[in-house]
Amino acid sequence: MAVLVTGGAGYIGSHTSIELLEAGHEVIIVDNLCNSDKIVLERIKELSGKSPKFYEIDITDKEKMEVVFKENKINSIIHFAALKAVGESVAMPVEYYSNNLISTLVLFELMKKYNVKNFVFSSSATVYGDPEKLPILEDSSLSVTNPYGRTKLMIEDMLRDIYYADNSLNIAILRYFNPIGAHKSGIIGEEPNGIPNNIMPYITKVAVGQLPHLNVFGDDYNTVDGTGVRDYIHVLDLAHGHVKALEKLSENPGIVTYNLGTGRGYSVLELVKAFSKASGKEIPYKITDRRPGDIASCYSDPTKAEKELGWKAKYGIDEMCEDSWRWQSQNPNGYKK
Ligand code: NAD
Ligand code: UFG
């Protein structure tokens, strides 16, 4: 029985596919490569010693997706595929709603038709909006402020409705905090298009000399040093969390929701310091205005995942920085030669 991994050529999907193959799962990747490179598939094979089956398909194309369900015995779906840039979603809401929602609806329809019962969804800490209480528990109130976040919350709501109508399903909603880091080999990692929006790829591009300095978005928040605090989590820990989530679904838990974070927040300046220590590179920075829509602090209470999944993040900030740096320094132009 196979696991269908949508968006498996992307940053989190590629790391998870390796983890799944190593755990003995059969993996089928569907990706339209709109934000990834085919070379990732060769590297997944190189690292795991196994070849996932690959379909280059846009998931919004139901006819083509149906072929994947016909040709394979799919037991579970891990749904990573989505557009994910917050700022871009504000400028291009139609593309975000269309891509993220239609692709998910196509999967729901085919799941029903082909009797697939297990579904893992990539949600995000963004669904907690500006949290009322820290650390954030899974039952905190939910609110979103941009179209990207709204697609995540809408899909979570759809999943709750779908489960209500069909209790035979098993659904894991995983809310990721801030993924950084890369595979220990340094041959797969995160490759954002253009100038990075997220902090770690921005820092690594400064470190390799492709960007002059980091802009620190505000130093007047009510935090340890005034800069924004986030719960950074190693992508390898996240990947492992998906294997644990699949194990959980095999126990027929119904619909379950977990924070995947470390439970520890770091400020922007603490992250910069940890990166400099890991890489031996000074990161020049300038304090600028706050970025619209940013919040002061966001970090998880990951206790529920530990208790119910037997999952706990094992990598600390130093290893996250070392591994992000290994990937960027070995591949200054990402997957491009
Ligand atoms: P990514 O862009 O690296 O990976 C997503 C993959 O999906 C890409 O390979 C892209 O080509 C593919 N894709 C997108 N739309 C598609 C479609 N219609 N058909 C087929 N393939 C399609 O992103 P990532 O960082 O690996 O994120 C994976 C998931 O995790 C996303 O759902 C994202 O919203 C969620 N998430 C990411 C973060 C983060 O900071 N990286 C945080 C929280 C949640
Ligand atoms: N930051 C800077 N300079 C930069 C980029 C970021 O100072 O160039 C700061 C931000 O102000 C924030 C922190 O670094 O305090 C982290 O910012 P990111 O853009 O890396 O991450 P966010 O927490 O804003 O959001 C990310 C993803 C969202 C996701 C969320 C929670 O972009 O999609 O994590 O998982 F929802």
Summarize the structure in short:
With 337 residues, the chain is α/β, with parallel strands linked by helices. The chain has a domain at 2-178 and 233-261: Rossmann fold. The chain is 40% helix and 18% strand.
Looking at this protein, list some descriptive labels.
337 residues, alpha/beta, Rossmann fold, seven-stranded parallel beta sheet, three-stranded mixed beta sheet, 18% strand, globular, binds nicotinamide-adenine-dinucleotide, binds uridine-5'-diphosphate-4-deoxy-4-fluoro-alpha-D-galactose
Mind telling me which CATH architecture of the domain at 2-178 and 233-261 this is? 3-Layer(aba) Sandwich
Cα gyration radius (Å): 19 Å
Structural class: alpha/beta
- Give me the CATH superfamily of the domain at 2-178 and 233-261: NAD(P)-binding Rossmann-like Domain
Small molecules bound = nicotinamide-adenine-dinucleotide, uridine-5'-diphosphate-4-deoxy-4-fluoro-alpha-D-galactose
For the biggest β-sheet, the strand order reads: 3-2-1-4-5-6-11
In N-to-C order, the SSE pattern is: EHEHEHEHHEHEEHEEEHEEHEEHH
Helix content: 40-55%
**Gross morphology:** globular
Low-confidence stretches: none
Number of DSSP helical runs: 11
> What is the beta-strand fraction?
15-25%
Mean of residue pLDDT values? 97
Q: Give the C-level CATH assignment of the domain at 2-178 and 233-261.
A: Alpha Beta
Most strands sheet: 7 strands, parallel
